[in-house]
Design brief:
Elements (H helix, E strand, L loop, with lengths): L1 E2 L2 H14 L5 H17 L2 E2 L3 H13 L4 H13 L8 E4 L2 H10 L2 E4 L8
Parallel strand pairs: 1-2, 3-4
Amino acid sequence: MVWWGSLVEVHSAICRLQRDQEITDRDKQGAVARLRLLSLAWREILPGDQIRELATQSLDKYSLRAADSVQLAASLIWCEQRPSKRTFICGDHRLSEAAELAGFSVLELPNVLYSP
């Protein structure tokens, strides 16, 4: 399960790495192709009023940016606000901390798009 905007957010991260010359054009093409392939198999949590309300509440509780609060809210919707024993996979430290505080079991990923 992923938030509806995840494809855009990950694509943005890939583009930023390429612009910052941390990955090559070819690496970017490969990463975008893998992202598109993954997106064919995932299920999305769609936007709605409940997500907006939970995201707003998350901004009051945790040190999050707007997009991250929406991702956390979508995860809470998915588990019906019972995150105990649910795994939250994330590559962002701040979002991982908030998810853990919200009650998720967090698997924080290292940067997997490139090797320094």
